[in-house]
C-alpha cells in the first residue's frame, strides 16, 4: 500500500505525511531529501549545478541512503549523516536547479521505487511520475503568505524574503509539481496540522486504514 502526499513548498507535506504515517503504523518517505542531499553534495564539490553529467557522476561516486522512519527521515552519505544540513537557505536556493535535471530525477525515482511498501510518500511527483498506481493520492496547497509565515518559524529570514523565495521555487518546480488528476486537493490554509491529517485519514479507503 502506498499513499502519496504531494504539494507546493512548505505546504505541510512532511509534517502531514509523518502524522498520517504514524496513524497507519507505516514509515513515510521524503523524496525532497534526496534532491536536497544531491544539491548539498554538488555545492560542497563546487559543481556547476546545471551540469547534469557532473552532478550524476558525483552522486554515483557518493551514494546516498534514505532511511524512511515513521518519526522522521534521515539521509546518509556513507557514515556521514546529512539530514541536519539539508534545510539551509543555501540548499533551498540550489535545489530547484538540481531537481530540474532529468538524469537526477531518474536516479531519485529508482531509489524511491526500490523501497519496500507500505509507506506514505511525499514530494512533488509521487502521485504522478513515481507511484501512479498509489492506493490514495493527496495534494496540499496554501497561499504563499501562509506558507512563508509557517517557514519563518524555521528559517532566519523574514516573512517577505521567505515568501519571495517560495514563489520563485514554486515557479522553478512547476513542471514536476502538477497534481495527479485523481489526487484530492486540500487547502491547508484554514486548517490546523492535525486538521489536515484527520482530513486525509477520513478519506483513505477502508482497506488502507485497516491494513
Ligand atoms: N495546517 C497546517 N498544515 C500543514 N503544516 C502546518 C500547518 N500549520 C502549520 N504547519 C507547519 O508548517 C511548517 C512547514 O511544514 P512542512 O511539513 O515542513 O512542509 P513541506 O514538507 O511541505 O515543506 C511546519 O512547521 C508545520 O508544522
Ligand atoms: N518529488 C520531488 C520532491 C522534491 N522536489 C524538489 C522541489 C523542491 O524545490 C526541492 C525540495 O523539496 P522539499 O519537499 O524538501 O521542499 P519543501 O519542503 O517543499 O520546501 O526538491 C522535486 O522536484 N520532486
From TrEMBL:
Q: Which InterPro entries match?
A: Cytidylate_kin, Cytidylate_kinase_dom, P-loop_NTPase
GO terms assigned for molecular function: ATP binding; dCMP kinase activity
Signal peptide interval: none
Residues in Cytidylate kinase domain copies: 3-203
Q: What class of enzyme is it?
A: transferase
Database matches in CDD domains: CMPK
* Protein location: Cytoplasm
Alphabetically, which GO biological process terms does the record hold?
pyrimidine nucleotide metabolic process
Keywords of the record: ATP-binding, Cytoplasm, Kinase, Nucleotide-binding, Transferase
Q: Which reaction does it catalyse?
A: CMP + ATP = CDP + ADP; dCMP + ATP = dCDP + ADP
Could you give one GO CC term from the UniProt record?
cytoplasm
**Binding, ATP:** 7-15
Q: Which domain of life is it from?
A: Bacteria
Q: Which family does the entry's similarity section mention?
A: Belongs to the cytidylate kinase family. Type 1 subfamily.
Q: What is this protein called?
A: Cytidylate kinase
Biological source species:
Deinococcus radiopugnans ATCC 19172
